[in-house]
DNA sequence: AATGTCATGTAACTAGTTACATGATTTA
DNA sequence: TAAATCATGTAACTAGTTACATGACATT
């Protein structure tokens, strides 16, 4: 029963500052933290889930607002997620989630832990890029033009992450 | 009852070449068409769905293999999807899906239709980038460092698509 | 007084995951 | 002959979507 990607997005948000359900929804709606659903049908059940798992607790209920904050277990769950190794599957499946992880590191990890994450990410992407390059070299000419261009977009987007990693590392020496 | 993203990935794959369910699974597993699940629990039910909607039909059953191909309705559904306008929501939610669309255009659309798509995409991303830039200008300094860097990654990844659009257009004059 | 936003929820549905199951065929 | 891969499926579960519902409070 491991938390979902949305769960971690909520945990990270609450870690930055305790929020009501409505507060979380507004943050997901307005900030670029988006592509996470802000609909009540996803947020409120998720909060219940997290509460049942004892990762968050209600703190105070002033007028209408119920404010949630992380429990100790919630904080350590979040931290473990931030510290978990970067796998090639992570890279293949969703770079978005890796960037989300990074975004939440500021408050919880040390500079050297953050820089280690970036180096792991860099290495993993380099590996994957080699794989993609090989495929491109051998199959590129057999692919229909739009297919090939789409594939090349993929390569370029990984190169973008790579370049971003390298420039981001400078902030965490 | 509109087809899902996975449905379109299957339709596009079958349009390129009729396949068995297993064939589709292998393509999703091995090609970079990935992040679409290739598990039997997603593919076989999806094929049933598409068959019920009369977008695909079984053609022949040689030994074990049941081969599916697009019906006329399937082809036109796919084509309509390819031709549908590029919205800012598409861009925000998933560039991946837009690139998937592009990848399938080769066989079904004319050069001018493809180039129109690229121009629409370019314009939409430009709009969105302006929005992101404004946000960055006004809020960038208030954001925690990892949050800001993550945001900047977002900007860079849209710039990558933009550059890709521009270079891809050259193939469809 | 009416509209909009704050604030929280539920109910019905859909798609996708994980895990299991089966049998045939191919390869080591 | 054992193991791997071909080939297709199902069953139980989970998360998320859409749509609806409610009431308080603030604004015009």
How do the helices and strands follow one another from N- to C-terminus of chain A? HEHHEEHHHHH
Which regions of chain A have little confidence, pLDDT < 50, spanning 5+ residues?
none
**What strand line-up does the widest sheet of chain A have?**
1-3-2
What can be said about the biggest beta sheet of chain A? 3 strands, antiparallel
Oligomerization? homodimer
DSSP E strands of chain A, number: 3
Largest interface chains and counts: A-B, 36 and 36 residues
Mean pLDDT of chain A: 92
Q: Number of helix segments of chain A?
A: 8
Task: Give the proportion of residues in helices of chain A.
Answer: 55-70%
Query: What fraction strand of chain A?
Result: 5-15%
Which term fits the overall shape of chain A?
A: elongated
End-to-end distance of chain A, in Å?
36 Å
Structural class of chain A: mainly alpha
Roughly how many Å is the radius of gyration of chain A? 19 Å
Describe the structure.
The structure is a homodimer of 173-residue chains. Chain A is mostly helical. Helix content of chain A is 67%, strand content 9%. Chain A contains 8 helices and 3 strands; from the N terminus they run αβααββααααα. Chain A has a 3-stranded antiparallel β-sheet. The mean pLDDT of chain A is 92. At the A-B interface, helix 6, helix 7 and helix 8 of A face helix 6, helix 7 and helix 8 of B. Chain B binds a DNA duplex (28 and 28 nucleotides) through helix 2 and helix 3.
Keywords, separated by commas or semicolons:
homodimer; about 170 residues; mainly alpha; three-stranded antiparallel sheet; 8 helices; about 65% helix; about 10% strand; DNA-binding
């Amino acid at each position: 029963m491991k938390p979902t990607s949305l769960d971690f997005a909520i945990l990270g948000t609450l870690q930055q500052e305790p929020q009501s359900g409505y507060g979380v929804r507004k943050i997901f709606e307005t900030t670029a933290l988006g592509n996470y659903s802000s609909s009540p049908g996803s947020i409120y059940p998720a909060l219940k889930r997290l509460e049942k798992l004892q990762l968050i607790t209600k703190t105070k209920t002033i007028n209408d607002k119920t404010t949630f904050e992380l429990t100790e277990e919630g904080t350590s769950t979040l931290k473990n997620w931030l510290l978990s190794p970067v796998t090639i599957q992570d890279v293949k499946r969703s770079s978005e989630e890796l960037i989300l992880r990074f975004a939440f590191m500021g408050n919880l990890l040390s500079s050297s832990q953050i820089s280690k994450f970036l180096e792991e990410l860099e290495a993993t992407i380099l590996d994957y890029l080699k794989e993609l390059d090989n495929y491109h070299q051998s199959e590129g000419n057999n692919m229909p033009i739009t297919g090939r261009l789409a594939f090349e977009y993929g390569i370029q987007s990984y190169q973008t992450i790579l370049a971003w990693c390298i420039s981001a590392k400078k902030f965490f020496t």
